[in-house]
Amino acid sequence: MKKMILSVIAHNNLGVIARVSGLFTRRGFSLTSLAGEDTHEPTISRLTLSIEEEEKSLLQIQRQLEKLVDIKEVEILEPDIDVARDLALIKVKLSPDFNKIIKNITKSYDFRVVDVNSEAIMFQVCSTKEVIDNFIEVVRPYGILESARTGVIALASVNR
Fold it and tell me: Number of C-alpha atoms within 13 angstroms, CB side, residue 84?
């Protein structure tokens, strides 16, 4: 199994996400995340699909997506070459023990504090899935109160 990212350019019409996700359901493909939003052009959306499949299935998935109504382009991105990011918001309980390690965390991870009060602190981490997973494991012992994550978003590298 290989992890791959598909960047799908589509006309911004109702039902396009349902058709894309339905294709994965019908064909039994392994879709690990789907993120979609308008682009800088108001009539065009970009869907970023993270998949884990056999390499031979990848071209089949690409061809099937290209046949769907409203799909303009499907590009296969390489996670190791192209730029891919996830976003996470993680709310952690504040405690004297946690306060002591915050300085160490700042040396190891790139994050922002987006909200804080006397009981909790909320971090925004924008990085690869693996870095976010590691960050979560570091703060987990101190009490994660809530967390939310996006799926992967990606663009082809400018050096491609």
Answer: 27
